[in-house]
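User: Fold this; tokens only.

Assistant: Input:
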Amino acid sequence: MSAPTDLHFPFSAIEGQAALQQALLLLAVDPQLGGVLVEGPRGTAKSTSARALAELLPSGHFVNLPLGTTEEQLQGALDLEAALQSSAVQFRPGLLAQAHQGILYVDEVNLLPDGLVDLLLDVSASGTNRIERDGVSHQHAARIALIGTMNPEEGQLRPQLLDRFGLFVRLPNVPDVDTRKRIVRTRMAFDADPARFCAQHAQAQSQLRAQIAAARAQLPHVVWPDAVFDAVAQRCQQSGAEGVRADLVMLRAARAQAALAGHDQVSLADVQAVAELA
């Protein structure tokens, strides 16, 4: 029996990918982290995890950006003939509009053509999608959480786009026999009866949704003590990080980690927990 299209594998049931789950939860709490970039072999739950996260977000939007996507499909289109006839702009939404306040998932993000990369850079920086055609313009909010996956053997990511991903996860192959067995058993249980499997994890899913919502509300009130600033600056200086972008990402990620735990102050433990992801 195959899984119906309206049921996705529950985030709380994912096995063997703790670092990826942590990074995605941090992004759910603070989308201003910019996104999560994932390196890893096939079959390591990259797409499954991203889709599962969307189920926990308030909007639930999950939009896939295929490699063959055109700029018009991504950005949307303006009906110029209608604009000339009625003086009213008619906009056909693209993938960016569909992904607003949700997730834009880009598999093989390192293989995107430069035109799409430039669009993503503009939108990620501004939170707004602007379309201009022959003197006619339109804009709309496009606040997206960007999740990208890649295989570095197939090409490198442009540095400008790399900077837009605040968190990075390198997924190893399945580490041991026990983990492999847990992954396979949970997947087979889901495929055999998706409705029952999701029902069994409904309470855990509900708790995660509540935890994310509470962390989002708490986030603006979480503070960083001086000791945390010192620890982050020292880490980034020792690693040879260029500029202060790494400092900002690590501080934001540590704050999201603290908010997830329900704390009102970032601790050195929070910094330690996110350091390898930032």
